[in-house]
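Hi all, long-time lurker, first post. I run a small reading group and we've been trying to get comfortable going from sequence to structure in the token notation. Rather than ask abstract questions, I figured I'd post a concrete chain and ask someone more experienced to write out its structure so we can walk through it together at our next meeting. Sequence below, copied exactly:
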Amino acid sequence: QVQVVESGGGLVQAGGSVRLSCALSGGTFKITGMTWHRQAPGNQRELVAQSRNGGGINYADSVNGRFTISGDSAKNTMYLEMNNLKSEDTAVYYCNADVDRLVYGNWRHGYVYRGQGIQVTVSS
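-- Answer (accepted) --
Happy to help. Here is the structure in token form:
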């Protein structure tokens, strides 16, 4: 069974840094796309960063220059490095991985796995 585990969140002071991880297990994967969203209390979920194979990387204006999305294919893990954190970055962060899976010896396309969400709280 495929599992997606997010880690790395917590309480951090304004100006500090945090790295979120999103690890997939329970199968053989190729990550073809990565997305991080966040949702603050009372707000709609918003796109933070997105990376697609051959499609470039996009960041929300509010985090551009401070956040970096990346992945490690050998570890089936994606990351969100967050620097110079601000109080408005406080939210639950969700990862979303688009993957190809090896199923009975054949690569199958179009799987999407989501993390459970992890809280990041920035104190001012």
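A couple of things your group might point at:
The radius of gyration is 15 Å.
The chain is about 0% helix and 65% strand.
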